[in-house]
Amino acid sequence: MLSWEYPPLLVGGLGRHVHALTGALAHAGHDVTVVTRHAPGALFEEHTEGVRVIRAPDDPPRFDSAGGNLLPWATAFNHALTRAALRAARAHRFDVVHAHDWLVAHTATTLRDHLGVPLVATVHATESGRHQGWLPAAHNRTIDDVERWLCTEAARVIVCSEYMRAEVTRLFAIPAARTEVVRNGVDALRWRARPRAVAAARHHYAGDDGPLVSFAGRLVYEKGVQHLLAAAPALRARFPGLRLVIAGDGPYRKELELLAEPWVTFAGFLTGHDLTALMAASDCYVVPSIYEPFGMVALEAAAAGTPVAVAATGGLAEIVEPGVTGVHFPPNDPAALTDAVSGVLGDRDHARHLAQQARSRVIDDYNWPSIADQTAAVYHQVRPATDRVIVATPRVPVG
């Protein structure tokens, strides 16, 4: 299992996925090793939550990622990661290598060949999908090629939704028989905020004037926050005193701040109890994505007990059932977003019912023990009696 982020180095949902998955696999009795980049203040090797974690030091020189081109850094990173992983392999026998996304593709194929074990790859998103089918620069086209290479080399490709299965099949010509849909999971207990923390978040962000609407995620174009900001004035006209909180950071933040009304708060990157409290304090959580392979944050908000309104795109359309566990609106449509969120804010009994149904669905269908069992079943498909997994992660430099 190879991933480009892992706690305490987190960028988005992928790192949380890998962290939860490795813990669930270890709890189920599998021997899991994570090989990752060293984080400031962290140990170079430790056992935590039943998982062996080995952290590789950076290789000088440091590469600038200006313009979004991570290829030079990724090449150096894969060298350091491979070295650490091969060193770990001297002391431990591994039965499968599991790679998460393109940034670890070179290490993944090297380990597969050197250790003589099968390779499983999870594709969380594609470069083509992130850019709505347009690959604007040479490095974007190269990333697309590396994704194709990784999928071609893998014995099985895991995707998080039927939408992503179709995308991988279409883009990379991977036979459906070599793809498996294993959805992301959520620890429902982790997303239950303490009442005092919820009250404090509510007071901090909304006061007593009106409803609170929130979003959390990486501030990039494909997350669609620009459409939420476009809808915000109409929402406030319908619900006087409404406040909107945008949590997260990213390269699109300055442009988004220029679009925002004075009563919109950019809270920055929130983690842990702060993010959970914000979600639980909100009257509606909105996911306005243009491209969303899965949409784990919608399930996290549901686990926090908050009604959700999501763009009917990608995996979001699969995991949120309209009128049952949330509401849908077409992507790229601020007017439809306004109507969908208004339907939640204007009918508190209906909103409460949606939230209750959604949280029950999260507990029943998206728990990590079940996700771990499904993932282990994929390992067994490629190699019987698999009981050890190797996981590697980097830290992506922020320019």
Walk me through what this model shows.
There is one protein chain. This protein is α/β, with parallel strands linked by helices and 399 residues long. The chain folds into 2 domains: 13-185 and 367-393, 3-Layer(aba) Sandwich (Rossmann fold); 188-365, Rossmann fold (3-Layer(aba) Sandwich). Helices cover 44% and strands 17% of the residues. It has 15 helices and 14 strands. It has helices at 13-27, 71-91, 105-115, 127-130, 138-153, 162-172, 195-205, 225-238, 253-259, 272-281, 296-303, 316-319, 334-345, 348-365, 368-382, and strands at 31-37, 45-48, 51-56, 96-100, 119-123, 156-159, 179-181, 212-216, 243-247, 264-268, 284-287, 308-311, 327-329, 388-393. The protein has an 8-stranded mixed sheet, sandwiched between helices. A 6-stranded parallel sheet has the order 10-9-8-11-12-13, with helices on both faces. The longest helix is centred in the first third of the chain and has 21 residues, at 71-91. The two termini are 27 Å apart.
